[in-house]
């Protein structure tokens, strides 16, 4: 139960940070149609945007890891 809450917090936080990074990139470059850059072409991100991107990836990774560990714990008796 607590693992589910923690994984949800990490996953939602990661998505929010990724969206913030995308909006910062779009606002800086005024290329609102190229938001996929945040996911696939991170070399064009500024240093502040990269901080948000790294924080988002860490949060998403932690959320996915907790999800996997809780799933394994459910399977094993």
How is this structure best summarized?
This protein has 77 residues and is an all-alpha fold.
Give the topology, please.
Elements: H1 2-29, H2 37-40, H3 47-75
Helix pairs in contact: 1-3
Helix content: over 70%
What pattern of helices and strands is seen along the backbone? Answer: HHH
Strand content bin: under 5%
Please, how many helices? 3
Shape designation: elongated
Total strand count, please? 0
Termini separation = 17 Å
Catalogue the unreliable spans.
none
Secondary-structure-based class equals: mainly alpha
Largest sheet entry: none
Radius of gyration: 15 Å
Mean pLDDT: 87
Looking at this protein, list some descriptive labels.
single chain, 77 residues, elongated
How would you portray this structure in words?
The chain is an all-alpha fold and 77 residues long. It is 79% helix and 0% strand. The protein has three helices and no strands.
